Amino acid sequence: MADLLELGRRGHHTELAQHAAAARSSAAWSAAAALELACAWLLAGDLRQADLAVLEADQCDPSLGLVPDVWGLWPAPPAQEGAERQQALAWAERCRAWRRPDPQALWQQLLPRLQAHWKLALEPDPGDLLLILSRTSEAASAPLDPPLQPELARLVGDAEIAAEPAASNRYWQLLASLWPQWALARIRAADLALARGELEASGRWLQEPSPAAQANPWFHDVVARHAVQRGAVDAALDAWAEAIRMAQADASTTGLAELFEQRRREARRGPGVLQVRSLANRGEPQAAGALLERLLADDPQWQPLRSLKEQLRAGLPSGAVAGPADPPDGMAEGRDAGPDWLDRATARLKALGVATPPLPPQAPDADIDAITRRLSDYEARFALA
Questions:
Q1: Which of the chain's ends, N or C, has fewer CB atoms near its CB within 10 Å?
Q2: Rounded to whole angstroms, what are the CA distances from 291 to 198, 241, 284?
Q3: How many CB atoms are located within 10 Å of the residue 127 CB?
């Protein structure tokens, strides 16, 4: 039954019930096994099933005193000492502590351990206490002292994220799963997953946001950057526009508006331009034109966009749409410019930090055309007004 607790932690109710049914029919079924099952149900948040498992444990070994005999109706059976009984007593103690916990006492027990080593939150035993605490802290008779969420947030900030990005990502994913309505946890979890290229995990925390998350400009910034990674530049521009509006409306965050505007501008002039060209080259001129008009509405004076509009208006065939502006140093003059053109194009790509594909000694025209398009792509991405 070693995997029962993990099933409970993950909230896999169906699998937990299946394993429990198999365990009951085995020769190893005992009071200790039933109490372990009760703890697993408590981690899964099903108090009724946990109580039923405790009753099963009492039937296996009434001497444990799991069900109080208030009226003294049953004679106390003799206790059988041994390792199995000690194991059952340990599970019974854990079950009682998790069934009706004292949130403040639990928090005072857990916080010093996490302050000493925050990664303990990612280990089973402290993680189990944090899981139980997440289910009981809001129902506590008084607010926890110190406040729970601010303390957990302080444990893993920018310094810890920079030092241990993988563990920090797991930490914030855990907090977001335990407190789905905690705006900071959802934003951090989405942001860190996005930084690691985990688009699906990041997007999960951006769905059905709480009102507090929607009122936070950083949430819309993460939404925008996630949209860029998905190739949805139009949606990204909308999200950044909302982030900028919120930042400008709050005197304490007006400085963020400049950051979000810079990111929005980079998205227009980099991924936005490349998406327009991709749409045009795929034979979708209407979609390309609509996106380009959107980019021009926000950036009407940027010359590469106007040049790209002229190319689209000229009705160039698919695959012939060049970069939004001729690259400097005559890089767009093509292979007709002379035998050294390929060397200069390669040097320009290296200057931009882009690796060039290996070419055979007698490079066919198709390979040179590919380098031409690739050069134009990255010139468009890094061009500045």
A1: C
A2: 26, 16, 11
A3: 17
Q: Taking CA 41 as the corner, what is the angle to CA 114 and CA 3, rounded to the nearest 5 degrees?
A: 75
Cα–Cα distance, 224 to 68 (Å, whole number): 58
Percentage helix, strand, coil, to 5, in the chain?
A: 70, 0, 30
Distances from the Cα of 41 to the Cα of 7, 50, 255, angstroms: 9, 5, 48
Span 248-302, pLDDT tens digits: 998 777 789 999 999 999 999 999 999 998 888 888 888 888 999 999 988 888 8
Q: What is the pLDDT of residues 272-286, one digit of tens each?
A: 999 998 888 888 888
Rounded to the nearest 10°, the torsion over CA 272, 276, 278, 283 is 160
The burial of 64, by beta-carbon neighbours within 10 Å (0-12 exposed, 13-18 middle, 19 or more buried), is given as: buried
Q: Are 309 and 292 in contact (CB under 8 A)?
A: yes
Chain Cα centroid distance, residue 345: 39
Across the range 8-23, mean pLDDT stands at 91
Confidence of residue 362 (pLDDT cuts 50, 70, 90): very low
* DSSP-based three-state secondary structure for 368: helix
Contact 149, 182 (CB under 8 A): yes
| Cβ neighbours, 10 Å, residue 168 | 22
Give the count of alpha carbons within 13 A of 66, CB side only: 30
Residues 113, 110: Cα–Cα separation, whole Å: 6
